[in-house]
Amino acid sequence: FPGFAGRVSFESSDPIQDSTLLIQSTKESDQATYTCHISTYPSGNFERRIQLIVWRLPISSLDPVILEEGQAFRLAASCRAVGLPLPRLSWDTDVPGQSQNRTSGDGVVTSNFFLHPLRSMDGRRLDCLVWHPALDQPRRLRNTLVVHFPPDAVVAGYDHSWLVNNKGAELRCEGGGNPRPLNFTWTRKGAGLPEGVSVEGNRLIFTRPLNKTDEGVYQCEARNKVGVVRAEVNVEIPVTSEASQSQDSNNILLIIIVGGAAGTLVVVMVIIIILVNRYHKHKNRKLKRELSEKKEEINNLSRQNSMRRLNSISTDPRIQESSVLFEQREGLREGEYDSLGRPAIYPSCHSERGSGRRREMEAEKTERMRRVESFLKNSTLSMVKDLDLHRDQSPPPLSVSSGPLRQAGMEKVGWGQREGVTEGEEGNCTPEPYEISEALANHFHCSNGVLRPKPHPNAIILHPHGQII
User: Where is the composition biased (Polar residues) (predicted)?
Assistant: First the structure.
C-alpha cells in the first residue's frame, strides 16, 4: 500500500515465528480494521481481525470576553478543543450563567458560557475543563472574568474642622471603577477655584493658609472609558480669633491642672487613709496591751485582797461556822481580846476596862470596830420586824443555853449593843436572852441539826480554813 511505504515492518526477523506488525509515525488515516491471514497445509487457511484506533491528544483554547456593567445577557467566554477521540468540555465557576456545547464536522468541540454582567462578577473565576481518555486528569484552562463599570467617586479630606489660617488643607477624589479613572476634574459651584490651590491627579491642594473666601461646594469629576461620575462636598470655614484660640489653650491648660490636682488629691487621700489605718491599728494594739496589763494588775490585787481576807478573821457573824465560832470563843477566853482588839464579851460583863495594853489595842483598831458595829447595827435593825416570825419558825433544837454557839451569839449581840453604852456603864451591862435569840434568829438557820448562817446579798462566805483565790 502506498500509504504504508516506509512506515510498516515486522517486529521479528522471522515472520513465521512472530508476525507482529509495526506502524511507525502513526497517522489519523491509519485508523482501520487490520486482518492477519495464515495459510497452512493440509490444515487450511486462518484469519484474525484487529481494530486499530488512533488517539490524538486534544488541542484546546479559551477566548475570554471583556464585559461591561449594564449589558444584556451575552457571551462571557468560549472554549474549544480538537482531539481523537473527541474531547469533552465543561466549566468550573461560581457565577450564575449558562453553557452551550457543539461539535463541528472537522472534529472541533466548542463550549460557550453566557451570563448577565455585573460589577460584582469582576475578578471571579471562570475556568474551562477539557476531558480526554489520553489525559490522566482533566486539563484546566484558567480564566478570570473582566467586567468594566463606571467609577464610584467620593471626596475625602474635609472633616468639618477647617478654620481660617489653617495650613496644609487638601481634598482628595477617591473612587473605584474598572478600569480605574485617570482623568479628574475639580470645580467649585458658582465660582472658579480660589487662588493659591493646585490640582495634582485626584488631589486639590491649598498651598496657602485657608481664608473665609475658600468656602463653597467643591465638585470632583472622575472619568474612565465606561462613564463619568461626579462627587461634591460643602466646605465651611468658620472665623476664629487669637483670643478664642488662646481661650481654648487656657481651657486645655485648666483641664490639665484640675486633672493633676485631682490625681494628687486622690494620692494624698489614699496615703492619709493608709497612715490613719496604721495609726489606729497601732493604737488598738497599744490599748489591748495596756488593758491586758490592767487586767493582770487587777487580778494580782484581787489575789492579794483575797489573801488578806483569808488570813484575817471575818467580822460578819452571819458567815461563821460553828467550829469557827468555837475557836473564836476559846481564843477570846485565853487572850481576853477578840479579832478586832476589843475585850471579850461574856454573859456577864466585867466592871473594869482591863489593863493598859488592852486600851492600846483598842485605840489601834477603833476604825475597824466602828465599821463592823455600824454594819451589825444596820443589819439588826432591818430585821427586827420579822423577829417573832423567825422565833416561831425556829425549831426546839436551836437552844443557845450552852456551848460555843451560845457564846458566839452572845458575843455578836454584845458587839451590836456596845454602840449605845458609855464607858461608865460598860461594867454594868448584861446581855438579855431575847437579844441573843434575836441575833441567832436574824443571822442563822438550822439545817440537819446544824446552825448555819443565813444567805445575804452583802455576805462573803469564807471557808474557816485559809485558801488562795
Answer: 299-311
